[in-house]
Write a structure and sequence with these properties.
Strand order of the largest sheet: 3-9-8-7-4-5-6
Largest sheet: 7 strands, mixed
Radius of gyration: 34 Å
CATH architecture of the largest domain: 2-Layer Sandwich
Structural class: alpha+beta
Shape: rod-shaped
CATH superfamily of the largest domain: Endonuclease Chain A
CATH topology of the largest domain: Endonuclease, Chain A
């Protein structure tokens, strides 16, 4: 008998021993079951009750003594099918509950702060932010062009993906590179020197603070109040910046 398979179906080791013993010896009292199944006397009644509930054991009473019988082996499949039906019902209930949780989470403000280090970290953070953004306009300020060309190429790819999703972008630059920005569509740029030592991008309730100094990094903040503060700051600077 494949005990591991029966355990996966939902039977305990004790239940398998008792059921196997009854299949082998036929109708029996608890004494005979204990001897054959090699389990403790304190557990046999509990195990038998569970097997009866599962439809795998029945009993009759003779002279005030219970005699137990194993149900045909096919009953194991019936038990499994019943479990499968119950699982399907639970799965449907779980789907409904997940929808309820999603609705609840939509009304709960998300708060997250993560630090990403190095080129791969920056790459992961900016594309993750874009993936999670479902608005119409992105704001960026303090943008400079890196001496390391791979960062400029990375941002070009990012902007092209943004353009495919038809998301507008306004950028306040610390320096102008016409060749790069001539490639971008749906983008407005203005120049304001020395506004911030870091580049800041606001995407809905997400704020990215990128530092391209000695240790390249990006701080990923998801918080509506923080994002709103940066949006207000951006709009103030936008009015001061040169077209």
């Amino acid at each position: 008998m494949n005990e591991k398979l029966l355990e996966e179906v939902g039977l305990t080791k004790g239940e398998i021993k008792v059921y196997s013993a009854l299949l082998e010896i036929g109708e029996a009292t608890t004494g005979a079951i204990l001897k054959n199944a090699e389990i403790s006397g304190g557990k046999v009644y509990q195990i038998l009750d569970k097997l009866i509930t599962k439809g795998l054991v029945s009993y009759i009473i003779k002279n005030n003594v219970k005699y137990f019988n194993a149900a045909p082996a096919e009953r194991i499949l019936d038990y499994y099918n019943k479990k499968e039906d119950e699982f399907a019902e639970k799965k449907e209930e779980l789907k409904k509950e997940i929808n309820n949780i999603k609705i609840l989470s939509e009304h709960t403000q998300k708060n997250e702060v993560s630090l990403f280090i190095g080129f791969k970290g920056v790459e992961s953070s900016i594309f993750r932010a874009l993936e999670n953004f479902h608005g119409e306009e992105i704001l960026a300020m303090g943008v400079r062009f890196s001496k390391d060309k791979k960062f400029n190429i990375l941002w070009e790819k990012w902007h092209h993906l943004r353009e495919k999703r038809k998301i507008r972008c306004r950028i306040i630059l610390s320096e102008i590179d016409k060749e790069i920005f001539r490639k971008f569509r749906n983008t407005q740029t203005r120049k304001l020197e020395g506004i911030t030592p870091s580049a800041i991008t606001v995407l809905g309730d997400i704020v990215l603070i990128q530092n391209y100094g000695h240790e390249v990094s990006c701080i990923y903040i998801q918080n509506e109040d923080t994002a709103e503060s940066f949006r207000t700051f951006f709009e103030t600077l936008w009015k001061l910046a040169k077209k």
